[in-house]
């Protein structure tokens, strides 16, 4: 054997030896990690008790408020209850452990006080660093009580003797499902906003988490190594929205009632303030296919629900025609029998038999498809680019830019796009072959209500930290009006005409004026528009003479036996009126003020005027109502037969004469003298059972008879 062969053999032996050694070491490590035990426990279980690593303590998420300060979403803390049984000295531990056991038993009601005390003693005896006392977390109110307990009580001079309450924050919506899709919610795993304002303002709301060292004890329990500044998370900022809880309740209640009535698929309502674009209410309800409520907020139709708007889009068509002076409101249009064919397409009016020859304003008020087609044919069919240019001028080809994620961009065709046909302009003129959201259509109508000035809708007014404004959203008004003042004036008259004597005359209100437009768009099923399946909407504003609020109401796919009663005028418009009526009653600022009568009143004293009372009160009433028959004397007074006033003698030791007084005035006079008053009837005091001037006897009963 030569030297080379001997060297190779030795190298091979060394290699095998090293391989076997490596396998043995790995095997030993695996054995020690997973199989070896010491005092009855595996080593990996024991190592857990000595593991220190970085951990994240989540910051308190910012709150979301309504316009009036009501909470829409907040983070409520719950607390993990644990204790380090080694901290307390022997005498304190032994004297207080039974008391703590009884209190824990009373709180959690899963073990006796003796069992809890034994658990604590065993943990101290085994030198455990941390004992999780119960898997259930306690509320803030329970925490406050626990801070007075032994081991948890702390003073300025002495820290708590081992007890610990670690906070965890859970998102809570005080108003339940109200505006849920708008306010939003959190992802249950990441705890980040997954929709609505929660997602749109995630960085501001989330705050800054704290990162520090924790000791991971047996069972995965984490105990902070220190409580220094690095372990103090920074709370999130608070959002102050433009939503009004009362308006939101009105919108959701009325919408749900209509959806139930028509067994509809879905619906939405948006209420916006005209001049500022602040959204006061935004309701979205969809039929629930699972268990629970019939209608739920699981999709934001207002922001993302694109569809053919239908006849509400005729406002844009009329404005384009008026801008070009192609028509005028009094121009006569012969709509014939309400049906016409154009390039193989039949254009039909909802009114059977047609409307004959009517004015351009009546074409809009009666929502005549034929009339719109004829006016467009006379001017824009040869100028499709010009018509589309006006739609861009009206800002209908772009999102509103509301500061919330999820707004779907509009789909608006033009002659350069694929799919444009010779009839595209026809369908577009009365609201088909396009996709717009309710918010985009409402913003367009809101601009008309605002004298042509387009305002960006907004949902968040301010972002605050501890009450201090960090960020404020200014009102954005587009620098250029969407149309000429004359055009705006004319279409506003048309919108009022729709309610006065058009397709929405059923919602006319004698107390205030409404302006708006109905829209009934056929829905597509299996690639074709289906008769009887409608997307209904009404968009408008009120009071029409001085608009403060604009609103859209949408009911999708209402059901009923009579197809003629499924149009927007019967379905969506009444929802608009119901909400508008309630808002009008609620917001007294939009009421027409009463005009004070000038000059002295010539009203003579009459039975309906006060015949007795306290002079100061009568002076106030007389001033407010401009009545010149105020008393010239002070104190308690009564009107004599001639109309003059005389004082009523009031002595503490005598029964007063309360005849002619209201019950509100008579009661304190009698009860302050210790009398028990029995009342019969309504109105003013006509008779009293004890004569005036009689000496007062304490606790005596006096009967009053009231009359009108």
Structural class: alpha+beta
Mean pLDDT over the residues: 86
Tell me the helix content: 25-40%
Largest sheet: 7 strands, mixed
Total helical segments: 20
Transmembrane segments: 14-36
Subcellular location: Membrane
Protein name: Transpeptidase family protein
InterPro entries: Beta-lactam/transpept, Beta-lactam/transpept-like, PASTA_dom, PBP_dimer, PBP_dimer_sf, PCN-bd_Tpept
What does this structure look like?
- The strands form nine sheets. Strands 4, 5, 6, 7, 10, 20 and 21 form a seven-stranded mixed sheet that branches. Strands 13-12-11-24-23-22 form a six-stranded antiparallel sheet, sandwiched between helices.
- Mean pLDDT is 86; it is low at 599-608.
- The N and C termini lie far apart (139 Å).
- The protein is 31% helix and 23% strand.
- The longest helix is centred in the N-terminal third of the chain and has 32 residues, at 3-34.
- The chain is flat.
- α3 (90-108) crosses α4 (113-125), α9 (245-262) packs antiparallel against α18 and α11 crosses α17 (485-501).
- It contains 20 helices and 30 strands.
- It is α+β, with helices and mostly antiparallel strands.
- β15 (339-342) and β16 (345-348) form a beta hairpin.
Main features:
PBP_dimer, seven-stranded mixed beta sheet, transmembrane, single chain, alpha+beta, six-stranded antiparallel beta sheet, PASTA_dom, penicillin binding, 31% helix, 708 residues, 23% strand
């Amino acid at each position: 054997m030569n030297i080379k062969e001997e060297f190779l053999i030795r190298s091979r032996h060394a290699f095998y030896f090293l391989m076997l050694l490596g396998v043995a070491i790995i095997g030993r490590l695996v054995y020690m990690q997973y199989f070896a035990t010491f005092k009855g426990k595996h080593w990996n279980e024991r190592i857990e008790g000595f593991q220190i690593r970085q951990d994240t303590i989540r910051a308190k998420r910012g709150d979301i408020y309504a316009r009036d300060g009501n909470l829409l979403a907040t983070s409520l803390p719950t607390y993990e209850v644990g204790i380090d049984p080694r901290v307390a000295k022997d005498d304190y531990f032994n004297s207080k452990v039974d008391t703590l056991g009884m209190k824990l038993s009373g709180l959690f009601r899963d073990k006796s006080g003796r069992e809890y005390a034994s658990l604590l003693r065993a943990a101290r005896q085994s030198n455990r660093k941390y004992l999780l006392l119960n898997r259930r977390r306690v509320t803030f109110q329970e925490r406050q009580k626990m801070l007075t307990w032994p081991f948890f009580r702390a003073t300025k001079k002495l820290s708590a003797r081992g007890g610990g309450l670690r906070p965890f924050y859970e998102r809570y919506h005080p108003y339940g499902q109200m505006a849920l899709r708008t306010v939003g919610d959190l992802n249950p795993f990441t705890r980040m906003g997954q929709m609505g304002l929660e997602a749109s303002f995630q960085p501001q709301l989330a705050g800054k988490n704290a990162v520090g060292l924790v000791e991971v004890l047996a069972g995965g329990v984490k105990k902070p190594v220190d409580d220094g500044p690095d372990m103090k998370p920074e709370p999130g900022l608070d959002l102050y929205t433009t939503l009004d809880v009362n308006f939101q309740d009105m919108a959701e209640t009325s919408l749900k009632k209509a959806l139930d009535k028509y067994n509809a698929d879905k619906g939405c309502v948006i209420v916006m303030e005209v001049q500022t674009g602040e959204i006061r209410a935004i309701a979205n309800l969809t039929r629930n296919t699972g268990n629970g409520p019939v209608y739920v907020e699981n999709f934001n139709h207002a922001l993302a629900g694109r569809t053919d708007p239908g006849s509400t889009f005729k406002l844009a068509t009329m404005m384009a025609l008026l801008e070009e002076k192609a028509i005028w409101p009094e121009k006569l249009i012969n709509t014939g029998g309400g049906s016409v064919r154009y390039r193989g397409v039949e254009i039909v009016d909802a009114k059977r038999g047609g409307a004959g020859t009517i004015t351009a304003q009546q074409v809009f008020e009666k929502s005549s498809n034929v009339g719109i087609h004829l006016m467009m044919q006379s001017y824009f069919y040869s100028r499709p680019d010009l018509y589309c240019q006006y739609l861009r001028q009206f800002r209908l080809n772009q999102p509103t830019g509301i500061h919330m994620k999820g707004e779907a961009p509009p789909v608006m065709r033009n002659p350069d796009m694929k799919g444009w046909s010779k009839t595209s302009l026809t369908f577009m003129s009365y609201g088909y072959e396009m996709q717009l959201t309710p918010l985009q259509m409402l913003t367009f109508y809101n601009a008309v209500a605002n004298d042509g000035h387009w305002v960006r809708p907004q949902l968040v007014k301010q972002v605050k930290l501890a009450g201090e404004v960090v960020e404020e959203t200014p009102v954005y008004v587009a620098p250029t009006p969407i149309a000429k003042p004359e055009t705006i004036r004319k279409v506003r008259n048309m919108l009022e005409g729709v309610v006065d004597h058009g397709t929405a005359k059923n919602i006319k209100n004698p107390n205030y004026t409404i302006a708006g437009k109905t829209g009934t768009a056929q829905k597509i099923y299996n690639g074709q528009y289906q008769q009887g399946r409608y997307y209904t909407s009404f968009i408008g504003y009120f009071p029409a003479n001085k608009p403060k609020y604009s609103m859209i109401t949408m009911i999708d796919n209402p059901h009923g036996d009579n197809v003629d009663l499924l149009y927007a005028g019967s379905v969506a418009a009444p929802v608009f009126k119901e909400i508008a009526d309630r808002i009008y009653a609620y917001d007294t600022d939009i009421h027409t003020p009463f005009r004070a009568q000038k000059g002295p009143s010539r009203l003579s004293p009459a039975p309906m005027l006060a015949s007795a009372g306290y002079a100061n009160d009568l002076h106030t009433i007389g001033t407010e109502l401009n009545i010149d028959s105020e008393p010239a004397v002070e104190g308690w007074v009564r009107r004599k037969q001639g109309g003059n006033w005389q004082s009523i003698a009031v002595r503490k030791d005598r029964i007063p004469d309360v005849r002619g007084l209201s019950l509100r005035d008579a009661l304190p006079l009698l009860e302050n003298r210790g009398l028990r008053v029995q009342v019969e009837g309504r109105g003013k005091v006509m008779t009293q059972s004890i004569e005036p001037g009689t000496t007062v006897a304490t606790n005596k009963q006096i009967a009053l008879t009231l009359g009108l």
